[in-house]
Amino acid sequence: MSMDITFLGTGSAYPSPHRGASALVLRTEGECWLFDCGEGTQTQLMRSPLKASKITKVFISHLHGDHLFGLPGLLCTVSLNCNPQASQPPACVDIYGPQGLRRFLRVALVLSSSQLLFPYAVHELVPCGGQSPAEGQLDPRVTDSSDQLHPQEQPGQTIHLDTDSDCYTLFEDKQFTVKALRLFHRIPSFGFCVQERDRPGRLNVEQLKKLGLKPGPLYGRLKNGESVTLDSGQVVSPGDVVEPAIPGRKVCILGDCSSLVGEGPAKVCQGADVLVHEATLAEGHRERALEHGHSTPHMAAAVARACRTRVLVLNHFSQRYKPLISQKDSEEDDGGEADVRELKRQAEEALSGTGTLVVLAEDFLTLPVPLKRP
Ligand SMILES: [Zn+2]
Ligand SMILES: [Zn+2]
């Protein structure tokens, strides 16, 4: 099954002609999950090969506008493009994010008299005290969502930290488990860990033929890990004829942060195939990055190192860092301190010897996440 990540916006603070505000799509066969939805995400989607109507789940890392202001508009446009005569009723769009998101979306949709042709539900994560300075914590009166639901809104869950694992379990299905983890930022922020389930290894057909086994129900039993006894009395165990299981992929997408909070995040992200981490400013601006709850390439690299990540993708760049594409034809390309490649160099320097690959996110970059065949 194919899986890839498409970056729709890689700039911090606001969308510019050079970089869109934060948004990326994790695509698996048939489904698109949107992570963050800064202003302008819908136009970025239109310019990409992706279809907004394929988005089934949305994950919002934190409530800063550069990650959120695009959401009401995107939902309205998806609705405009819905077919009201479709034979099947539209599926509910599940939206996950910090406490306050339900009210934000409800007020935006109600005050603009926006009706949707599909239902939606907002599942809220309850932040903990240590995720921001005191002034970044919202008054419960502001986040209260006990009033009337929007006509297309379905009741969502309120998800608390699981103190045993030190993370939040958002959902589990046949293919994936999705967890959220705590991050420190100016306001409470979260990361998301998408873990694909391992899949059973393929049957070694040649070996089966040698044993005289014909295709049929016995194949299924062996694939499911059962031993079978042949007419001859010979016992065939799955290890004889089934190749090793294919490990599920793990993709971790972190919101704005200057650090992880607690022990859980590094555990949950351990061995990630891809870690998407912000690197808003270069090492020379570390103080300023910290002051705003952001990271530098060395800080992102330290997280990748602690999690033993295969690939570290840097994103959420200050708008001072122009994209590589525009740099190529630019006279000003002097390799100076506003060169985005400097961020990559700094992360690589901090990861030397680890084998972790560093990638710079760019708007419309699609990064495949291949299966790890043993
Ligand atoms: Zn941001
Ligand atoms: Zn932020």
Description:
This protein has 374 residues and is of the alpha/beta class. Helix content is 23%, strand content 24%. It folds into two domains: 319 residues, Metallo-beta-lactamase, Chain A (4-Layer Sandwich), CATH 3.60.15; 37 residues, no CATH class. The strands form three sheets. Strands 1, 2, 3, 4, 5, 6, 7, 8 and 19 form a nine-stranded mixed beta sheet that branches. Strands 9, 10, 11, 14, 15, 16, 17 and 18 form an eight-stranded mixed beta sheet that branches. It is globular and about 75 Å long. One zinc ion (ZN) binds next to loops.
- Label the CATH architecture of the largest domain: 4-Layer Sandwich
| CATH class wording of the largest domain | Alpha Beta
| Count of beta strands | 19
| CATH topology title of the largest domain | Metallo-beta-lactamase, Chain A
Helical content stands at: 10-25%
Average pLDDT works out at 94
Sketch the major β-sheet. Answer: 9 strands, mixed
Going by CATH, what is the homologous superfamily of the largest domain? Ribonuclease Z/Hydroxyacylglutathione hydrolase-like
Strand % is 15-25%
Poorly predicted runs? none
Helix/strand-derived class?
Answer: alpha/beta
- What gyration radius follows from the Cα positions, in whole Å? 23 Å
Q: Report the bound ligands by name, code or SMILES.
A: zinc ion
Number of domains: 2
What coarse outline follows from CA principal-axis ratios? globular
Please identify the oligomeric state: single chain
Q: Measure the end-to-end span.
A: 15 Å
The number of helices is 12
